[in-house]
Amino acid sequence: MIYAICFVIFLFAAVFFDVFTTKQIKKYENGFFIAGCFLLIVMAGIRTNTGYDFQSYKVIFENVKSQNILQIFSGGWSLVVEPGYLIINYLLKGLSFQQFVFIIAVLSISLKTAFINKYVEKKMICLFIYYSMYFLLYDMGIMRQGLAIGILFWAYDAILKDNRFKFFALIVIATLVHSSSVLFIIVYFVKNEKYSRKVYWGILLGALAFSTINIFGWIARNIPIAFIQNKMFYYLNSVSDESIINSIIKRLFILLIVTYNLDFENIQRKKHIIKSFNIFFFSIVLSIIFSAIPILGGRGTGALQIMQLFILPVCFNGKYIKKGDVFHRLIYILVIAGFAYYSMYSLINSHDYLPYTALILL
């Protein structure tokens, strides 16, 4: 019930502030945005036994809590869990696990929503999309990757400002928290320009051809680094939380909505939107390439896929879309809402999200 209530609240706020809006209404948006961010932090921070991998993270925390730093990195956890995340657990081991979860929620959600506040004009629509498509998975589930994605948002900020040192430094930090962050390096090579349809289709077909070459087993067998071999073994023998085909289809659906609605000629001066579109496109390309490893092709490319947070809200900005009247913008948001509801409940019903339980911090 709580998930549906929050869904309706965020959807109503998105329609109210970003579709049927006036200057008088718009001045209250920042206050509602802050309140929404606070709600998400509380929801993720005080949960207990709720969410994807909650028990796994608790086991890691309790094991780290009982060991010194040398024991942590000489034991089995260092072969399967990134060193940066282990260090965070070690530094916070004086807390209870419930308090640890709350601090991670504050850090992870604050990093992401601060970036949204800085770059996105349609903030409440963006917050709605974030809640319904990403929050439950990354902030109430795979919180290690959720924290890494928050760090990567600011790596993206660095590259938009042409600060290469900060960009690569933040990628290293994020990779120490979740290894999939290394894929974010591709952002450095993505251009701020829209290509022709032939180029996009050619890249997709090339990715499909490359996906038929199984190089991942070779990597697992031949790279003599225990952490990489263990990760590859885990990825090759794990079942993804959703079919990789479903993941690719959902991304292609979003891609079609964006390409159909956006007026790319008029949006050329918004370089970060063009770059975000291209990054999202390459999340589809990598999903196809890594389709032999569903957990990597799906969740592993999450930091690139989440760039849709910065392109979907533009579809509700009358200045940058082909049909910007209120009627068409309302249709767009209802289509996105239906898609988001399906995504949210397919996750909730397949993992440990029901019932939602919470504790006051002890």
What does this protein structure show overall?
The protein has helices spanning 2-18, 23-26, 29-45, 54-65, 69-74, 83-91, 97-119, 123-138, 143-160, 164-177, 186-189, 197-210, 216-222, 226-236, 244-261, 271-289, 294-297, 302-305, 326-348. The longest helix has 23 residues, at 97-119. Helix 8 (123-138) packs parallel to helix 19 (326-348) and helix 13 runs antiparallel to helix 14. With 362 residues, it is mostly helical. The model has no long low-confidence stretch (mean pLDDT 83).
Which tags fit this structure?
362 residues; 66% helix; mainly alpha
- The general outline is globular
Strand content: under 5%
The end-to-end distance, rounded to whole angstroms, is: 26 Å
Structural class: mainly alpha
Q: How is the biggest beta sheet arranged?
A: none
Question: What Rg do the Cα atoms give?
Answer: 20 Å
Poorly predicted runs are: none
The ordered H/E elements are HHHHHHHHHHHHHHHHHHH
Into which percent range does the helicity of residues fall?
Answer: 55-70%
> Helix tally?
19
Calculate the mean pLDDT score and round it: 83
How many extended strands?
A: 0
